[in-house]
Every structure is written in C-alpha cells, then in structure tokens.
Specification:
single chain, Nucleotidyltransferase, domain 5, DHBP synthase, 3 domains, 19 helices, 22 strands
C-alpha cells in the first residue's frame, strides 16, 4: 500500500510510505525556494511521484493533519495564509494593524474543534486533490498532536516509551503526554493552547524583533551571552506552574504577550532571552520528571516545534530518571506530513515501527546529471574537474583551512544539514566561524555552528555521551573543558554543542571525516546547512551553483566534481 502524507501549513511538504519504509519525503521550500513555505505542496507531490516513477492512481491512501478553525479558514481563503506568511517573515511593510492580525491568529487557533470545520477542510482538500488528478483514494485527517506523537514513537526504535509533544498550538492543543507500549500509542494528558510553552517562546522571539516560528534558535543562542539571573529573581518563571502532568499558564496567549512586553522593557535583550530559555528548561524538565514518575517509563520520545530546543533536550537527556531520549529529526510542523502518513499506516495496517538509520529521503543526482548542469550553466571564473576518491582531495583542502560547499547523495529530510547538503570547514578556527557567519552566510555573529564527528572522537570530546549517539543534530552535549580548544569553532560560549555523531563509516561524508582525521588527528568538521541566510537548503545542483556563485567561497564539490573559483578576477 502506498500512502501519501501531506502537510499544507507552515513548512508544507509530503511523505510517501510503502509498508514499513519511507520512500521519499521533501518539504515544499526546497522546490519553491521560499523558506518555510506555507502553500499547498503541489510541487512536492509532482516531484516525488515523478522521482519514484509513480502515477497518481497508484496512491491508495492520502493522510493530512489539523482541522482547527484557523487552519480550515486558511484552506478556504489561501490569501489569508499568504498574508500572514509575509507578515511573519517581515516581507511586507509594518502596519499598525499587524498586532491585530497576530491577535486574531492566536484567538482563531484556540477556538474549539468543530465537526463542521473538519468537513469543510476535507471538502477543500478533496477538491484540490481531484484538480491535481488524484482518483480512487481514501482521505484521512488526523489530530495534529497524534501525528507529532506517531512520528517520534514509531521511528524511535523503542518498545516502550514516554512520548511527549510540545509546540505552539495545533488542533487547539499545545502538547500531549502519551505512552508507547507494544506498538500502541495511548494519550494520557492534553496540554491546551492556553497553556502553551511554544506560544510563550513565540512571543519572546517576536518582542526581540525576530521572526516567530523561525528565529527561536537565535533567542536560545543569545541567552548564552547574558549575565545570568538567579531563578528566584526570574519573573518569567511565574508564567507557568507544573502540577503533576498539568501545565498551567498564568495568562492567556494575548495577555502573555502584554506581560512579557512589560518585563522586556526592564531588561537587556540577552537577559530577557536567558530568562525565557531558563523558563523552558525548568518547567519542561519538571513536567517530564513528573510524567516519568507517573508512568514508570524511562525512555522519552519528543516531537513538536518546541522540541527543537537542544538545551532543553540536553537537560532532559541528563536527568537521572531518563535512560534515553529520542527526538524526531523533523520535529516541527514540517514533519506532520510523515506523521499523518504513519498514523494512517498504523490505523490501517497496524505498522508502528520504521527503520530510521538515516533521513536521506530527498532526491539524488547522478554525476552525469551534474556534468550536464555544469556544462550548461554560465560559470564565470569557475573551473571544475572530475576527481576519483574526492574525499581525500577535499580533506586536504579543509586541512589547509578552507571552506568547502559539499553536495552529495540524497537530500536530507528535516531542518538540519547532515552531510549531503552541507558547508564544511575546520572545527577549531574562530576566524573561519566568523567569516562563515558574517561574510558567507550573512547571519548574526552569536549564532554557533555545529560539528559532525566520528563516534570514536565523540567519545573523546563529549562529557555526557549518554544513550544512543545522536545522528540527527537534535540534542545538545557539553564538550570536555580540556578538549574545547580543539573544536572552538563549533561550540557555544558555555562549551556546549549540537553534534551529528557518525556511526556508519560507509558514506562519502564519513570517509571524508576519516581522511581529514589522518591529516589533523581529529575526525571532526564544522558542518552547517548549504544555503544563505533566509533561504532553504539547496536541493539540486542548479541551486548549489546559484548559491556558490553568490558567495566568496572558493571551493565546492558536486558529486565527484571539484569546483574552484578564481576570486581574484572578480
């Protein structure tokens, strides 16, 4: 049975499952080239079917999530969704009505579910699918947080686990507490939209003149540079109370914003960020400790946008009550297409386990295709050559303290670059880190970069390597103090990092790390996403060439082709 999962909201995309395998998954932004695309994923649907050589009539089941009033309204009137997208991403001029629009959005998402809303959503989606040429399929629409929970539980490899979802809001909820036992999910507790950790952090992000649903990671990063405030002096801790497995917010979503604004007025930005980050750390870990005590389950699965906070995840991992933590690699709403497909597969076929050794679910391009793209593009000041054993040659370039744009294999699924669409550099150079931030990627100076490291090096460098090595960059770790100089280009000011830990040495990327280790003595590289700030990860060789041409970087690898740029002639 072929199941197509679709998500048509923030970071829209698709996923195609067959039995217990993920055949293909992609988010619309990679094809539309608009970061965190919100339109119905028509490009992703067409691309995936063509890539897999499938026809629309081959798809037997189509699954979606979220039928709340606001989502249904956006499906009926897509211009409302587009307008909010442009507002949120600061792509339109400021208006005095913007705060009213945001307020309406929060009020609308909190409205209780209604059977009419679901019927209208199904009607609109069916009309869209039939217009695209789908016939003789069954359409299912599932609860937002059930899809988050299923994606984490069914890909974790755990037989029994506590499954927690935490985000802004979806289907009127901001989170759930579930158990996984014998392949069966059971929900124990709902966290209502009024009591949302995610919306709290959205407001913090917006107040700091950053983009909510996008720049929360910047808030977390800036918090590292604050003069720390004692917990007893942190006024934001009063915004939430944890009572067993209940989350109780002091204010509703709009009042939260007003009260946060009053506090922000009194504190520097970095201290405000620190207090907000600390609030998440204390309150979420307290909630999970209580849930573990209640369920006696010591393995934890996490999903939902708030679970992208690697500092919170690190604290959860290091709780003495916790044996192991798994975070779904595409934890935000962009992962809902896969989650809905997995719920459908669970309910129809009783499939609740997937082999998730990697997440390279996107398109792959052959060396012949790459050669054709190179020949047909007008490459000014760029030379290229085919190199057999390219890993060895690139290791030498990196060892000579160069930045390399690296494009290989199938594109990664999710928000993290995992070695197929990556920008690479030596891990120890703060000078290169600053060049990457300020010159190449044009990001704020305080955003850290992440390392990729071989497992044997991770064991030497990381002080809290607990549980299964994290291969998907979803978890924070502390680097041992005596090792921090070796990797100072890929750690936060507090000594923490978000590593990708490589356990399989068969890929080109793993071989590159091994070759670099022969030269440098350490199997670690700086690894950041192959894109410019504000743009999606590159998907095709054409995307890579466009990005490369707009930077001052000298070297790029496409498959087995090594490109070098003569910057002196610019």
């Amino acid at each position: 049975m072929l199941i197509l999962g679709i998500w048509d909201g923030h970071d829209s995309g698709i996923s195609i499952l067959k039995d217990d395998r993920v055949l293909f998954a992609i988010n619309e932004e990679r094809l539309s080239r608009r970061k965190l695309e919100i339109s119905f994923p028509e490009k992703s649907i067409e691309y995936s079917l063509n890539y897999l050589n499938l026809k629309k009539e081959d798809i037997e089941v189509i699954a979606l999530s979220t039928s709340e009033f606001a989502k249904t309204l956006w499906r009926i009137f897509p211009f409302l969704k587009e307008n909010y997208y442009l507002l949120r991403r600061r792509k339109k001029d400021y208006s005095s009505f913007d705060s009213i629009k945001r307020g309406f959005k929060y009020r609308a998402t909190e409205l209780q579910l209604d059977p009419l809303s679901r019927k209208l959503s199904e009607f609109v989606i069916n009309r869209k699918l039939k217009k695209l040429g789908f016939r003789n399929y069954r359409l299912f629409m599932y609860d937002h947080h059930l899809c988050h929970a299923a994606s984490a539980a069914f890909t974790s490899g755990f037989k029994e686990a506590l499954v927690i979802t935490i985000d802004g809001i979806g289907d009127t909820l901001s989170g759930t507490i579930n158990t996984l036992k014998d392949g069966r999910l059971e929900r124990l507790k709902d966290i209502t939209g009024k009591n949302s950790f995610g919306i709290f952090f959205e407001h913090v992000t917006n107040l700091m003149n950053m983009r909510e649903l996008e720049d929360e990671g910047k808030v977390m990063a800036l918090a590292n540079y604050a003069l720390k405030i004692k917990d007893e002096d942190n006024p934001l801790l009063d915004f939430f109370e944890i009572d067993g497995m209940e989350v109780k917010a002091r204010y509703g979503s709009l009042k939260t914003s007003k009260e946060l604004r009053k506090i922000f007025w009194k504190f520097p930005s970095e201290q405000f960020a620190f207090m907000a980050q600390r609030t998440l750390e204390i309150k979420i870990t307290e909630l999970i400790k209580n849930a573990i005590k209640e369920t006696h389950l010591n393995k934890v699965c996490l999903s939902g946008g708030t679970c992208s906070n690697i500092k919170v995840n690190m604290l959860i991992k290091n709780l003495p009550e916790v044996d192991e933590v798994y975070v779904f690699p595409h934890m935000g709403d962009g992962g809902l297409a896969m989650g809905s497909a997995m719920v459908a597969n669970y309910k129809i076929n009783s499939i609740s386990e997937y082999d998730f050794n990697d997440v390279y679910f996107g398109p792959e391009y052959s060396n012949d295709y790459i050669k054709s793209a190179l020949d047909t593009n007008n490459l000014k000041n760029i030379e290229y050559e085919y190199v057999e054993g390219i890993e060895r040659e690139v290791a030498k370039i990196l060892y000579a303290e160069n930045i390399v744009f690296w494009f290989q294999g199938r594109m990664e699924y999710g928000p993290r670059a995992l070695g197929d669409r990556s920008i690479l550099a030596p891990p120890y150079s703060e000078e290169i880190k600053n060049e990457l931030n300020l010159v190449q990627k044009k990001r704020v100076w305080y955003q850290p970069f992440c390392p990729t490291m071989l497992l044997e090096d991770a064991k030497e460098l990381l002080g809290d390597l607990k549980g299964k090595p994290n291969e998907f960059m979803t978890m924070g770790y502390m680097v041992k103090k005596d090792k921090q100089k070796l990797v100072k280009g890929v750690i936060n000011i507090d000594g923490s990092c978000r590593p990708q830990i490589i356990t399989d040495h068969n890929s080109k990327y793993a071989k590159l790390l091994s070759e670099y280790k022969k030269l440098s003595g350490i199997g670690v590289l700086l690894n950041t996403s192959f894109n410019l700030h504000g743009e999606p990860l590159v998907c095709s060789p054409e995307d890579a060439l466009s990005t490369f041409s707009r930077t001052k970087a000298k070297y790029m690898v496409l498959g087995n082709y090594l490109l070098s740029k003569n910057n002196d002639s610019e």
